[in-house]
Automatic annotation (TrEMBL), chain A:
Organism placement in taxonomy: Bacteria, Bacillati, Bacillota, Bacilli, Bacillales
Entry keyword annotation includes Transport: yes
Source organism per UniProt: Alicyclobacillus ferrooxydans
Any one GO MF annotation of this record: electron transfer activity
Subunit record text: Heterodimer of an alpha and a beta subunit.
The family this protein is said to belong to: Belongs to the ETF beta-subunit/FixA family.
Location of the Electron transfer flavoprotein alpha/beta-subunit N-terminal domain: 21-209
General function of this protein: The electron transfer flavoprotein serves as a specific electron acceptor for other dehydrogenases. It transfers the electrons to the main respiratory chain via ETF-ubiquinone oxidoreductase (ETF dehydrogenase).
Keyword annotations of the record: Electron transport, Transport
Annotated protein name in UniProt: Electron transfer flavoprotein subunit beta
Assigned GO CC terms: cytosol
Cofactor: AMP
From TrEMBL, chain B:
Cofactor list: FAD
Annotated source species: Alicyclobacillus ferrooxydans
One GO term of the biological process aspect: fatty acid beta-oxidation using acyl-CoA dehydrogenase
Domain of life: Bacteria
Source species taxonomy: Bacteria, Bacillati, Bacillota, Bacilli, Bacillales
Pfam family, one: ETF_alpha
TM annotation in the entry: none
Domain Electron transfer flavoprotein alpha/beta-subunit N-terminal: 5-195
Name of the protein: Electron transfer flavoprotein subunit alpha
Positions bound to FAD: 213, 238-239, 252-256, 269-276, 290
Amino acid sequence: MDILVLLKQTFDTEERITVENGKVKEDGVRFVINPYDEYAVEEAIRLKEEHDGTVTILSIGPSRTEEAIRTALAMGADEAVLADDESLFGDEYTAAKVLAAMVKVRNYDLIIGGNQAVDDGSGQVAVRLAEELGIPHISTLTKLEINGTEVVGHRDAEGDVEVVTATLPVLVTAQQGLNEPRYPSLIGIRKAGKKPLTHVTAADLRLSPEDLTARTEIVETYLPKPKEAGRILQGEMNDQVKELVHSLTNVEKVVG
Amino acid sequence: MSKKVLVLADVRRQKLRNVTLEMIGAATRIADGGEVGVVILGKDIKALADGLGNYGVDVSYVVDSAELEHYNPSAYRKAFMEAVRDFEPSAILMAHSAVGRDFGPVMAARLGAGQVSDIVDIEGEGDDLRFVRPIYAGKAFTKVRIKQGTTIVTVRPNNLTPAEAGVGKAGTVKELAVSFEQPDLATMVREIVEKANTGVDLTEAKVIVSGGRGVKDASGFEPLKELADLLGAAVGASRGACDAGYCDYSLQIGQTGKVVTPDLYIACGISGAIQHLAGMSSSKVIVAINKDPEAPIFQVADYGIVGDLFEVVPMLTSEFKNVLADR
């Protein structure tokens, strides 16, 4: 089974955000594989271990993305393709066009991505890609089973689980709980340096200017007003509880 | 210039979720004097179109079909496209819910459109609209505009002002007959497993009672559930509680997990890691209960009680019972 994994490099979720000159500041930030994409990488490697085949990482992003890609290769992916040509960076519309062009020159049975990235969190690119390719998709999976060409996915739908079936080729997206991503082994890390990582440009992908024209524009990026710390209630516990309930029901009026 | 705006009603268990009225309110504003349409997809859902005119809806499209009983991207796409062809919208609104999160990008790709996901506010007017949305799960925000083509937005529940009744439009209802065959049914929902905790949906809950590592084990959620039941609240959890196996990942609130904005968030035994705060600090009122007075959660809390949740939470439940019984 040949599997393509969509991977984005993101800030570590414990990073604080600062904005400078209207942009999120990247200096000194620790970058990781987007946590949802890490589930995708792990799932692809498990499927390969079970069914044989290949795992190829596809990514769009600046050259720093190589670090995240090497981690995925060290986990057990076979090769990677990175679109780090700046003219390929845009919005979710252009990202799906770029990925579709990267996918179309390959054989694949399954595409796995995270259900969203923890940075912009828009959750669009993978689903858009499935539409661009004209293949079915199942999103936010907490469990994935593949028997022959039959796919059974357990989809997280606001607390309910939908058990969804489809036939390969299919695109799926990972939700938290899908698996427990492995740490790369020392041997894996050593091998990763020798695995192929190809860079592609706009010329390689033969995309039209229309395909590379973003539909959206970010006009402002800012931090929310810092939340002011409130009051720590004092006194006997019984009185604190009474005061709290009184405040919530009569002052804040958020209960009742 | 006035616009035509189409809303996908957010239907769960054959009921319209509140966010539908929030979207109709936003659609009326975006339409700027133009028409507002609503699309209702599902099985046995015709009655949901009744009375929408009174909220300002000009046209309701209903596709009532067994194949739409559960969300199915390709079947939804076929049905929704019928309404798009008839209505010719310049903007489309969906909820940022289990359906809209998935279906927004389907339609955006199909129409070659830009989409702004998970919006919490709209600024500007006429053709100069800016959609406000969180990034990094609310650690920062952006304002986004659509440069060209159809506008698609998904709307976070509980944030925009809902449309109010009393507009008094007649509102027409158009039933569309759509037949589904392969490949409209490329994916199929085989069954739905309803989990125990789905009484109130986390993303739409007005009140959330949430537990962290301080609950100590799965049974430690019991006092939280009792309080939640009394308040009609949803139960949530921190990553610490989920990673420790005290509860299902579907309850997780944070940058990995769900982002919530209830009126009241009660954090019990949650220390307040940055990634958790990102998912809940936009809540209107935050209450923190924690043994450690230095816990970072107190820095975002409007009201803090330093104490053991196993002592405090049952006391809260019983005091709420007293107070609410008197009303």
